[in-house]
């Protein structure tokens, strides 16, 4: 008769790597919040209700959530891009492109797109 | 040095208990040597698996201080203070440090871990270029030690998950130029690659430097492409 241990509900506290993983997954909630916020911003811009939107967005709790969301989304993006080489194996004439070049390419593209958006908005 | 060993004796213990043993703190002893010393000179009832003692057979995987390790390659000098030795997580315990590996073997067989061919038998050997060999060689180094399963919280929480080694082995054949099999229906499922949440600990635990996490993420990309373009086959 074999013994099967009961399910460990606090498994994510047993190892540091598990905890980091769970934190990374939880940041998805803030990514979702950021998307909803941007959709509301676009809706206000299209509907001509930007002053009301900015008044709401200036509320202390919205600012606090957005500061948290910015940090969480940045953490999510960095960990996501760092993991990207795992799923992307590129071979050029038999030579495997090293992981740091794939990550570097992703980070560069992120910076370029961010700079482009900043330029358009300003 | 104190070795705190997890004991489970069916018919005697309702649940595993820890038992402390004092072993000589020898510089050249692996954990497996200390366990063998206990069995030979202190307590002959202690049960554990081992075979080659050189990191090839994959039999002596256990949790050492909470980390899945091959005990033949993990030395007493790597630790200070009591060392806790437990059976691999995620598997039913048969006795002491011996786990039931049948669920693992069942998962392995699901992915058809062999060269699948169609058509007539070839008359000569299959030649491969070094590049073709390199494409899958890493995944062929797996010794089925199950450390990656013990490190994977997804498998420990859901034993229906195929698991890192089985999927890496499937990729070993998927990427082999000689293979003509299609493992899409097994791999592109919730119990297959989509069950993986990319914790990445399978790769960290692997003593042979196989990268199961990479194998799984690569097949996710393949499976996604197959789903978007369902008319494509794996091999033209």
From TrEMBL, chain A:
Per UniProt, the keywords (alphabetical) are:
Cell membrane, Membrane, Transmembrane, Transmembrane helix
Instruction: Report the Pfam families cross-referenced here.
Output: Fumarate_red_C (PF02300)
Which Gene Ontology cellular component terms are annotated?
A: membrane
**Residue ranges crossing the lipid bilayer per the database entry:** 21-42, 54-79, 100-121
Instruction: Classify the source by domain of life.
Output: Bacteria
SUPFAM superfamilies, per this entry?
Answer: Fumarate reductase respiratory complex transmembrane subunits
Protein name (Swiss-Prot/TrEMBL) = Fumarate reductase subunit C
TrEMBL record, chain B:
Q: Which GO terms describe its biological process?
A: respiratory electron transport chain; tricarboxylic acid cycle
Could you tell me which pathway this protein works in?
Carbohydrate metabolism; tricarboxylic acid cycle
Q: Does the keyword Iron-sulfur apply?
A: yes
Q: Which key words tag this protein in UniProt?
A: 2Fe-2S, 3Fe-4S, 4Fe-4S, Iron, Iron-sulfur, Metal-binding, Oxidoreductase, Tricarboxylic acid cycle
Q: Which GO terms describe its molecular function?
A: 2 iron, 2 sulfur cluster binding; 3 iron, 4 sulfur cluster binding; 4 iron, 4 sulfur cluster binding; electron transfer activity; metal ion binding; succinate dehydrogenase (quinone) activity
Give the cofactor note. Answer: Binds 1 [2Fe-2S] cluster. Binds 1 [3Fe-4S] cluster.
The residues covered by the 2Fe-2S ferredoxin-type domain are 1-91
- Tell me its cofactors: [2Fe-2S] cluster; [3Fe-4S] cluster; [4Fe-4S] cluster
Membership in a protein family: Belongs to the succinate dehydrogenase/fumarate reductase iron-sulfur protein family.
Give the matching NCBIfam families: dhsB, PRK05950.1
Q: What is this protein called?
A: Fumarate reductase iron-sulfur subunit
